[in-house]
Design the sequence.
């Protein structure tokens, strides 16, 4: 396999834009990525686009906005891991030698989707969905177990949200740039106890794009290519095999595969961008990604290590909680954030001297399978 | 209401004890499934026997939902109940006075109305503290 690098990244504005189409948001992200590395639309040879809702030929609709057409375009859907899936798709195309240069796009217009202002609805034959299962409810039940088994408190969950909102204040592209206190998080509206409104990611419209190319070609465009050193994507197993709902077997499997491919250990990672759709979730993922020992996620949080300026900053972008979560865009957006840190271009939220970063996404609820049914992880290095 | 319809056929039955969830079991390796599996996902055995699941189990976790979800109006409780057969069941929970939910408490299955739509009463399974 050939070595692959990220040479261009771009993000649209994140927020609520009911008057803008997915194509418009996606086009903004793609134009930013093209501009970032100075390549021409005609240089793109292959494109993957991810979108969860109301999707039909998303890549084509987005790319026609910026003059990219008449090439192989593939559209994917993998819930919150859709963006990671698109990124991996382009990586595989280039690593295998099918193409030299391609673009991965993630885009979601939540406010114009059929689920605008609603929860993600159950599929028609989803028995648990019709019995009242829902994402915040699932994470409410997970939080209860964290409190029972791992000594977590509601203040810990609030602390994750305080941290990520603080990070969001340092990111000009964040949907929410507002500091909150633990008390404000805890006193916000109860959603699924103990999960409050400010422990949930918002509904967000937005897009992100990343341009990948083979390492030999990358030098033509940039002196600063960021290498993709690890890539893993897996689907979870049957739910009856998930004994502890606080542990993501598929997330651990993807992490191990990505570390092994990169020839790196968790201690080598300088920053992490991850799926923090609910504040309590971030603590679990510390453990899945082996940033600490199993059961010690709460201690890692309390130590301050995962804040900007700490040993291993997690979600310096503000994460899904503050930056926002356009579902399929997030898996590309996390890669973009890691790339900015590895280039030293992350401004006030920069991880000092970052050499290696990890982008994680997890998503999807399917009755009968472990919750968070797809995990996608990429490790990037300068 | 005359027209009682189960949320799904073959998942539970109403009986003298109140109600029972119906799963199945692999004749080869003994793995139990709820809802029923067409074949064993563990050993791929094709011989499956229907089993009536224990009526009682232990509450693994729970939450109170404070927003509308499909047919349920807030506030409503849902939870996960571990049955002795090694099956974890997701279901709505019934609030019983003086028996606040706590992890590990004994729960019992109840068959009752989930919601009404048009002229139908949709029935399904819930759990309540013993």
Sequence:
């Amino acid at each position: 396999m050939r070595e692959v690098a990220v040479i261009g990244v771009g993000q649209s504005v994140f927020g609520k834009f009911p008057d803008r189409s997915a194509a418009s948001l996606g086009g903004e992200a793609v134009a930013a990525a093209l501009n970032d590395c100075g390549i021409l639309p005609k240089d793109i040879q292959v494109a993957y686009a991810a979108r969860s809702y109301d999707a039909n030929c998303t890549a084509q609709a987005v790319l026609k906005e910026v003059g990219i057409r008449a090439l192989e375009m593939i559209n994917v859907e993998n819930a919150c891991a859709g963006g990671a899936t698109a990124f991996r798709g382009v990586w595989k195309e280039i690593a295998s030698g099918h193409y030299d240069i391609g673009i991965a796009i993630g885009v979601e217009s939540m406010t114009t989707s059929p689920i605008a202002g609603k929860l993600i609805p159950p599929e028609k034959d989803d028995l648990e969905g019709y019995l009242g299962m829902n994402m915040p409810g699932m994470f409410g039940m997970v939080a209860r177990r964290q409190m029972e088994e791992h000594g977590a408190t509601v203040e810990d969950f609030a602390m994750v949200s305080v941290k990520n909102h603080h990070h969001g204040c340092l990111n000009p592209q964040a949907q929410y740039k507002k500091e909150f206190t633990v008390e404000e998080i805890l006193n916000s509206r109860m959603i699924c106890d103990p999960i409050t409104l400010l422990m949930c990611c918002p509904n967000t419209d937005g897009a992100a794009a990343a341009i990948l190319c083979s390492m030999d070609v990358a030098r033509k465009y940039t002196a600063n290519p960021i290498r993709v050193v690890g890539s893993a994507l897996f689907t979870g197993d049957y739910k009856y095999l998930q004994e502890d709902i606080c542990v993501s077997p598929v997330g651990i499997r993807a992490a191990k595969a990505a570390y092994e491919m990169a020839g790196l250990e968790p201690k080598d990672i300088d920053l992490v961008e991850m799926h923090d759709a609910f504040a309590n979730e971030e603590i679990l993922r510390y453990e899945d990604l082996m940033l600490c020992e199993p059961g010690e996620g709460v201690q890692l949080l309390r130590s301050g290590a995962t804040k900007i300026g700490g040993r291993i900053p997690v979600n310096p972008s503000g994460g899904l909680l503050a930056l926002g979560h356009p579902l399929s865009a997030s898996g590309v957006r996390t890669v973009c954030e890691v790339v900015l840190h590895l280039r030293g271009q992350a401004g006030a939220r920069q991880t000092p001297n970052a050499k290696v970063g990890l982008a994680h996404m997890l998503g999807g609820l399917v009755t009968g399978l472990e919750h968070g049914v797809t995990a996608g992880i990429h490790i990037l290095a300068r | 209401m005359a027209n009682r319809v189960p949320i799904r056929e073959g998942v539970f039955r109403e009986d003298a004890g109140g109600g029972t969830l119906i799963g199945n079991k692999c004749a080869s390796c003994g793995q139990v499934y709820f809802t029923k599996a067409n074949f064993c996902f563990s050993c791929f055995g094709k011989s499956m026997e229907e089993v009536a699941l224990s009526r009682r189990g232990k509450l693994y976790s729970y939450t109170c939902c404070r927003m509308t979800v499909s047919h349920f109006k807030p506030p409503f409780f849902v939870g996960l109940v571990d049955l002795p057969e090694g099956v974890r069941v997701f279901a709505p929970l019934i609030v019983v006075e003086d028996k606040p939910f706590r992890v590990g408490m004994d729960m019992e299955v109840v068959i009752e109305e989930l919601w009404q739509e048009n002229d139908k009463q949709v029935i399904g399974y819930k759990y309540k503290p013993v």
Q: What stands out?
A: Chain A has a mean pLDDT of 95. The radius of gyration of chain A is 19 Å. Chain A is about 35% helix and 20% strand. Chain A has two domains: 4-115+205-226, 127-201+229-381.
